[in-house]
Model the fold of this input.
Amino acid sequence: MAGDERFFIRGVAYQPGGAADAQDPLLDLETLESDVEMFKELGINTIRIYTVDNSENHDEAMAMLDEAGIYLTLDASTPEYSLNRESLETLHQSYNAEYLQHLFATIDAFAGYSELYLSLGIVQSSDNWRRQPHAFLLR
Done:
């Protein structure tokens, strides 16, 4: 809450093609533009994206969301760069310099944008989703 005003999230998970496809939806500007119009009609003020390419420029997409008043909740982990919580050994193996570099690169790539929440979620199995830690940045 900022001051006396509360922010109520009215959002959707937005990953066209689904998790199996795992493409960066912010790079398909034509589809995003069309979908943002639908989001506005539906009163959606937040979208959650599971996968982005932190090596690409997202200025146009983020400007489009900002102009529409839509917040972005972004997972910094991706199917390629995530913690494997199958066992303590796999967790330790997956928590490495390459994984951390990917997280830092994603944070750096999105640090200058407003209306952003960043999630460092590490859900890897159906039995640990309730214990998922998050770190959120709100700009």
Remarks:
- Residues 128-139 have pLDDT under 50 and may be disordered.
- The two ends are 13 Å apart (CA to CA).
- Residues 29-42 form the longest helix (14 residues).
